[in-house]
Structures are given as C-alpha cells and as structure tokens.
C-alpha cells in the first residue's frame, strides 16, 4: 500500500479521493484549511494552509504520492499557480509522484484541436479567470518542471462538481488529453472519478501525462 497525501483533501474531488484510497487500505493524509465534520476512519487529517511552504513540506515529505486537489478560487485565487509550483518543487525534491485534479476545459475535442479553454464564450464571464488559471497548470507549468518530476494531470468530464454530483456507477472511461465523449453528453460523479483516480495511482502506467475520466 502507498502513503498518499491529498492536498485539499476535504474538497469535492479531494474528499472522494481520500475516501477511495483509504477504503483500499492506503495510508492517507488529508491536508486542508478546515477539518471535516465527518472524518473518514483511518485517515490522518492535517489542518493547515496550502500556501504555507513549511506545511506543504511536512505533508509531502515521506509520502509516495502527493495529490493536488486545490481550486483556483477563494483564498488561492491569486496564488494558485505559485502554490502548485511549490508543490511540484517539493515533490520533485522528495521523489514523490504528483497527481493533480484538473479541469475539463484543458482538454481537446479532437486530436490536435485547440483546447476548450481557448473559447469560453459559452461560460459565464466570472468563471473565465479561474478556468484559465487551472488550465495553465497543464498548458505551461507542469510541462516546464524538471524531467525528474513524475506527474499526472487528471481531468474530469465537463459536468463535474458539487452542484451536479451524479451517482456512483462503479465504472469510468479513461482517455488522454482528448475528452472522452460519453453518450449522455459528458459527466462523471465524484466517487467514480476517485475510482479512476486511485486506479491510476495504483497502476502507475502514466508519466508526465494528461488524462481524463468520464462515464
């Protein structure tokens, strides 16, 4: 079993990943600004600020895998990319594999096509900045990290979030940076995203790669 640290471990995606990994017997640590109302058994919860390097270092050191499940909004709106730069540097120094919860807008509709993020005309304007900042991780930041850092950027299908939770089907489909096109138009629940996410961690078949999960 692996030692897995989930940074942002009480958020929508992060808490689902924590639950799935713990259920499989992994040694899980969840770092977040606030502690959960209903802690998951056998999970170590650490309350702290992901923008604090000492806090990040203590959580990443000794792990086998670090999962970044942070959102580019709220307290991290202006420092999101800087925080991930620190996470990547610390993971690289510690020899820890980095998995990142991404967004659907960083995917492509077809091989070689522009990413969805290049045209946000159908998205409310107030969301444009956070979408672009989130996509910048895979477009610019992660590919520019040292080759010694092993990372995987995992995008969910387009309709993913607490406002559209979906149901657990116990299945998922895996694609690369081209969006999987489900018959129902594109969605995945948090439990099934976590199912695929932890499968990716356990199988270890992808390296410095962008993948996506959908029903």
From TrEMBL:
It comes from the Bacteria. Gene3D superfamilies: NAD(P)-binding Rossmann-like Domain. Residues 8-157 form the NAD(P)-binding domain. GO terms for molecular function: oxidoreductase activity, acting on the CH-NH group of donors, NAD or NADP as acceptor. SUPFAM superfamilies: NAD(P)-binding Rossmann-fold domains (SSF51735). This is NADH-flavin reductase.
């Amino acid at each position: 079993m692996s030692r897995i640290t989930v940074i942002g471990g009480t958020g929508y995606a992060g808490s689902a990943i924590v639950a799935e990994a713990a259920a499989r017997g992994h040694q899980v640590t969840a770092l977040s600004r606030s502690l959960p109302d209903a802690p998951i058994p056998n999970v170590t919860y650490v309350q702290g600020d992901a923008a604090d390097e000492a806090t990040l270092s203590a959580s990443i050191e000794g792990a086998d895998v670090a999962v970044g499940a942070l959102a580019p909004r709220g307290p991290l709106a202006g420092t999101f990319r800087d925080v991930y730069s620190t996470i990547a540097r610390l993971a690289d120094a510690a020899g820890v594999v980095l998995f990142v919860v991404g967004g659907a807008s960083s995917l492509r509709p077809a091989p070689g096509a522009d990413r969805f993020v290049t045209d946000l005309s159908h998205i409310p304007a107030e969301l444009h900045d956070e979408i672009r900042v989130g996509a910048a991780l895979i477009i610019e930041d992660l590919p520019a990290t040292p080759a010694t850092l092993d990372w995987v950027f995992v995008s969910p299908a387009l309709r993913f979030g607490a406002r559209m939770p979906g149901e657990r089907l116990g299945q998922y489909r895996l694609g690369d940076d081209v969006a999987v096109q489900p018959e129902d138009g594109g969605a995945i629940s948090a439990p099934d995203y976590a199912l695929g996410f932890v499968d990716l961690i356990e199988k270890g078949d992808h390296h410095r790669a962008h993948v996506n999960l959908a029903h």
